[in-house]
Amino acid sequence: MSTVTILGAGVMGSSMCMPLRDRGHGVRLVGTHLDTGIIDSVRATGRHPRLNVKLPGGVAAFQHDEFATALGGDTDLILLGISSAGVGWAIDRLCETLKGPVPIVMITKGMHPEVGRLTALPDRVAAEVKRRTGIALAIAAIGGPCIAGELAVRRQTGTVITAHDLAFAQTLCDMLACDYYHPRLSADVIGVEICAAFKNFFAIGVGWAAGRLENMPATENRAFNHNAAAVIFGQAIRELTVLVRAHGGSEQSVWGMPGAGDLYVTCQAGRNSRLGNNLGRGLTYGQTRDGPMKGDTIEGAELGVAVAATLRAMMSTGALDARSLPLTTALLDALTGDSALDIPWAAFQRM
Known about the structure:
By secondary structure, the protein is of the alpha/beta class. It has 16 helices and 12 strands. It is globular.
């Protein structure tokens, strides 16, 4: 059995304690500087206050300034469970703590904007650690449809593990697989990571339909607004395909668990959908961020703001066909311009 140190005690990182411990691996859960209360609770009662479950026995909890202690000299695998906004912080911790190579698997969702293209976060982390320390790290990523609260109570869950080193990814699949957690292998790092990141972004658009319903006149048959949500969902899949193709990824990822599967489950609930609901009610991103969702991390919105300049530059040079990305363009305009989300229905589903 292996010893795994998880950096990030949020709901997703902490839910990974379940399959890891059920497979007999040792787990050390390290909070970030934002997770002090979570670690205090786990230490005192074993209960994770945000997941509202008791973590498995044998999970050792550490505060953020105890990362080196948790890592020790015997960690076999590091699992990065931080948010995309915390990637820079995590890179700093790795660079100041690692004495040699330790394999890493990431559940962080996001993309790093560069000139003319987007880079997958695992590649960004590997490159930055190598530049600053000279240490070459094997890094994999987990994508696909996984709600942390369901994994935490051992509901059936399927994911995809991707890495440039397929043997490493297969080792992780073998290490994590159990009767309720079903990881599958993929060589499509960029495709899986684009899907993992942009599903949060597009879920904002799908969530718009439910919010819009609240401002629509009631009908005698109490009709919902699912038709509109379905059209937006379908357009999101088309645009995910455009983004994945442009970066050399595989369409199989878009139509499988990393794309369609993960977008579906993300649209069921969560902060990205809630932002979409508020946009549908007529609020702007800024009004929502400063009002009903103040203090919330909305990763789809943060991604859109971070990559807007890169995507617009790619459209201007023809690296991306702007006519194929009307939903992307509308979402970028709403997020960066703090304006209403105007759904461009007439531009959808064009050949």
